[in-house]
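It is worth pausing here to work through a concrete case rather than discussing structure prediction in the abstract. The textbook approach is simple: state the sequence, then state the predicted structure, then interpret. We follow exactly that order.
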Amino acid sequence: MQQIVRKLTIFVMGRRSSVARRAGRALLATGLGVALALGAGSAVAVAQQWQPTADIAATAEKFLRERTAGSGQRTSVKVGALDARLLLPLCEMDLEGFMRRGTKISKRTIVGVRCTSSRPWTVYVPVNVFVSARVYTARRTLPRNHLLTAADLKVDERDVSGLSSGYLSDEKQLVGHRLKQQVIAGRIITPAMLEADLVVKRGQSVTLLATRRGITISMSGKALINGAIGQRIRVENSSSGRVVEGIVRSPETVEILLPASSSFFHATPKVSPSPADTQVSNNDR
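Step two, the predicted structure:
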């Protein structure tokens, strides 16, 4: 076709007659029209033989969306822009999404998309995963060593997919804990920022609570180590002298982790030994 156009151009330029020039121009226009039509048809044919990148992206998104549907979290996925120069043969079958063994779903997850038709191919697509969750943030800027209260906290909906240290969604996990660092207003409070505040001191008198067969028994005891809310510590029953472990429930209360036996309740009280019987009477003197 290029040769036809070239010959028509030479013919028109070489003729001096106006009639010849007009006829040549018409012939040239007709030839160019045919060439453009053939070229457009070729372009359509070329476009139809390559797999659209939009289909690849949709397959990767659908696969990962189905994998995260049962997580109980509000999750959205989105494939980044694919290279428009990606030329893969048009698949004769439905595309399949998959993940390589050992791959974990994270903020940026690699999903494979493959064609299993007569001209098979596989491509790996990066997918961005956004996980939205209810978290606690700092209502105002809080200084280091600050003891958290409910008034310091604000509930917010945030993307937590990039929080490697995790997040806290229960107010009880924060209130009563001390900050290891300054926290700027609006920042998510993570477990790594907290340290438990010691509410029970070694040697302190505490109330021991133990539940047995549906009955709660309280007794006096002594803490043998320091402890924070929810922490396991060793305590001593003041009456029996028996040492067991318990969980700190408040600055004054420790819930006992009962041993398998019931000796904690029925141990012999601590008393001074009776004086030895010398079998000597004062009347014998």
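Step three, interpretation. DSSP finds four helices and 14 strands in the chain. Confidence is low (pLDDT under 50) at residues 4-17, 26-47, 266-278.
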